[in-house]
From TrEMBL:
Catalyzes the reversible oxidation of malate to oxaloacetate. The gene is mdh. This is Malate dehydrogenase. It is an enzyme of class 1 (oxidoreductase). Substrate binds at R92, R98, N131, R162. It comes from Gilvimarinus gilvus. It comes from the Bacteria. InterPro entries: L-lactate/malate_DH, Lactate/malate_DH_C, Lactate/malate_DH_N, Lactate_DH/Glyco_Ohase_4_C, Malate_DH_type2, NAD(P)-bd_dom_sf. It holds the Pfam family Ldh_1_N. The active site is at H187. NAD(+) binds at G11, A12, A13, G14, Q15, I16, S17, N105, Q112, V129, G130, N131. It catalyses: (S)-malate + NAD(+) = oxaloacetate + NADH + H(+). Keywords: NAD, Oxidoreductase, Tricarboxylic acid cycle. Its EC number is 1.1.1.37. Residues 5-152 form the Lactate/malate dehydrogenase N-terminal domain.
Amino acid sequence: MKAPVRVAVTGAAGQISYSLLFRIAAGEMLGKDQPVILQMLEITPALEALKGVAMELDDCAFPLLAGMVCSDDPNVAFKDADYALLVGARPRGPGMERKDLLEANAAIFSVQGKALNDHASRDVKVLVVGNPANTNALIAQRNAPDLDPRNFTAMMRLDHNRAMSQLAEKTGKSINDVKQVIIWGNHSATQYPDVHNTSVAGTNAMELIEQDWYENDFIPTVQQRGAAIIKARGASSAASAANAAIFHMRDWALGSADGDYVTMGVYSDGSYGIEEGLIYGFPCVCKNGDWSIVPGIELNDFSKAKMAATETELKEERDGVKHLLP
Ligand SMILES: NC(=O)C1=CN([C@@H]2O[C@H](COP(=O)(O)OP(=O)(O)OC[C@H]3O[C@@H](n4cnc5c(N)ncnc54)[C@H](O)[C@@H]3O)[C@@H](O)[C@H]2O)C=CC1
Ligand SMILES: O=C([O-])CC(=O)C(=O)O
């Protein structure tokens, strides 16, 4: 049996975590041979609810669950963490854009970035889920100067999965036939779902769909899917968000599938002309516990314009939280 690893999850009594924690403890994130210690963070008033979640985790008798910590102190929850899933933040309601949450949520991520800097493993893999995810990831990263900026990522995988599913449905193929989808940029309504390099059962996706459907149906549907879920469910997506978090971390830790890309919000190294240091959605491959941006993808003018628009929004969000960026 492997030695247990420490997985910190914030917002542990919230909606997403109610799906996420159980799947982590079942071995779906790090493998069926990897014991985990769950280090769960909540705000003080939610500690009683968190106790109930911990009781249910106990009652699952998961063979891989090697321990649990419940705390309202990030310095405790992030102690020696090997993985940190930053979920805890306010969700949006109807009529809001995700960036409307910046004011409410940004401060959480500066505190947690500092706590990660001071207490987590030097190799900690951080995934920010709480919205606006890319800019919150930037805030956490900038408040953790002793950690490699590459350790901080934002969740774009839900958008990636949504795009795969829409395309499979439109073309009448299986999800397993869809390869190399890309979501460039921000996890927001400006994100750019790009299928120019995507294949469906071996055929280029652009040969299977009309430009009009691509521009006026597919792209807005993927961009607005979060809002559509909020409208239908009365609450923001939870189980599908937890699933995307599991996929993101699983691939980062254990490797992504050969011949495919995964979209991750990662620290830009200037690839594709995107300003260095922004947390931007790029096509990535993961190997040996590390990610890299897929190089050499050809871009037409349509794609370049869409990528620039979402980059501009990320710069504006960054400039709006300057006071939290040391
Ligand atoms: N990146 C993505 O693709 C997605 C992101 N989200 C975002 O994830 C976040 C969480 O969503 P839900 O679980 O539905 O919300 P929720 O409201 O059900 O749960 C959030 C939990 O975080 C806790 N929390 C608040 N401040 C905290 C802090 N400083 N430290 C620790 N815990 C704290 C709250 O007490 C609450 O239990 C939201 O910001 C939502 O917009 C949701 C879906 C997809
Ligand atoms: O739309 C929201 O506010 C929640 C979210 O990020 C998503 O479902 O993609």
